[in-house]
Amino acid sequence: MEIEKIEKVHTIGYRLKDAKVTVNHDFKYNIAGIKIEGIQGDTNNMPQWIGKILNDSGVGTLDSLDMITQLKQALSKEKMVGEYQLSTLEPHFYIKLKESIKEFDRNDFDQVESILLELFRMRRGKIVKLADSIKLNSDIYKQLTVEENIFYKTIYDNSKEFENQVRGTRNE
Known about the structure:
single chain, alpha+beta, Ribosomal Protein L9, domain 1, Methane Monooxygenase Hydroxylase, Chain G, domain 1, 2 domains, two-stranded antiparallel sheet, 59% helix
């Protein structure tokens, strides 16, 4: 399955997860059959997609971790674990990053883009090395994002297919 299709499914799942929303103004809404209300100053848990609507309308503030900081931390961890090991990224790391990037101004985007490319290149190289030699197991699976899991499986399958083609079969 293509990364784009898997990413769409996981993006929906991510948006359904609870997020903290700080209420700026009292409100009572019925959104898609879900009744929600809030009192100014309260912090409520609600699905990410509802929090985004409240945030965009100014009724609430969607509390989210600073993705620039998370990206820098991910890069730092990746450098620390060494050349042949992967640090663990949460499965929806890139999905969250893409959502955050939409809100960045040009300066923030330029900063994030260079860090992201460095992290991406570093992880891609490690994944290729691992996938060329080891079948995906539960330990590695837990360290990868949803996109990286598909990439890993593709590299592994292509590597094995190439190896079989080069070796050929012996019919004796």
